[in-house]
């Protein structure tokens, strides 16, 4: 997942580009931004945006309050959409702020990454004693291929041969 300022040139490697500001970036023409979606409602509320004022001293309070806003509709539904998009490929969150470290896209990326980590359950590690592991492996390697009593692999079908092509004694099928 990438973060990019709206004033940076779009690139093919950006993948799906989403503007995550409530307001359109100043001085940027709509045809030059090259976004796939504009999710206005996922941006911080006007009240929160004004109280933050892009002051790094207010960053922690802003981030905490914005996380709360992301848990409520309509923002939470939009986060779901972004998580789904991130699972499909590269997702770029586009924002207009000058400060690359203290803006809503940073908090939003953190939230999406948390959701992606929860969505990927990890398989528990197999607990096999170290001395037993080689024996289990050796048994698996030495085991014969599962076959039926007639020597054919399980699930294999007997080839049918026409009587004219048959050689040797005739065998009755079961």
Automatic annotation (TrEMBL):
Signal peptide: none annotated. Residues 122-133 have a biased composition (Low complexity). InterPro entries: YeaO-like. Residues 118-174 are annotated as: Disordered. Pfam families: DUF488-N3i (PF22752). It comes from the Bacteria. This is Uroporphyrin-III methyltransferase. It comes from Sorangium cellulosum (strain So ce56) (Polyangium cellulosum (strain So ce56)).
């Amino acid at each position: 997942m990438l973060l990019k300022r709206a004033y940076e040139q779009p690139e093919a490697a950006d993948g799906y580009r989403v503007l995550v500001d409530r307001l359109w970036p100043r001085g940027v023409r709509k045809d030059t931004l090259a976004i796939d979606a504009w999710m206005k409602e996922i941006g911080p509320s006007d009240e929160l945006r004004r109280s933050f004022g892009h002051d790094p001293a207010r960053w922690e309070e802003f981030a905490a309050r914005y996380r709360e806003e992301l848990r409520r509709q309509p923002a939470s539904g939009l986060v779901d959409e972004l998580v789904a998009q991130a699972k499909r490929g590269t997702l770029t969150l586009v924002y207009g702020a000058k400060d690359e470290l203290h803006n809503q896209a940073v908090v939003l990326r953190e939230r999406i990454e948390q959701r992606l980590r929860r969505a990927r359950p990890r398989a528990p590690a197999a607990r096999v004693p170290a001395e037993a592991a080689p024996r289990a492996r050796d048994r698996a390697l030495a085991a014969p291929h599962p076959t039926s009593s007639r020597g054919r692999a399980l699930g294999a079908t007997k080839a049918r041969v026409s009587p004219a092509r048959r050689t040797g004694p005739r065998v009755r099928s079961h």
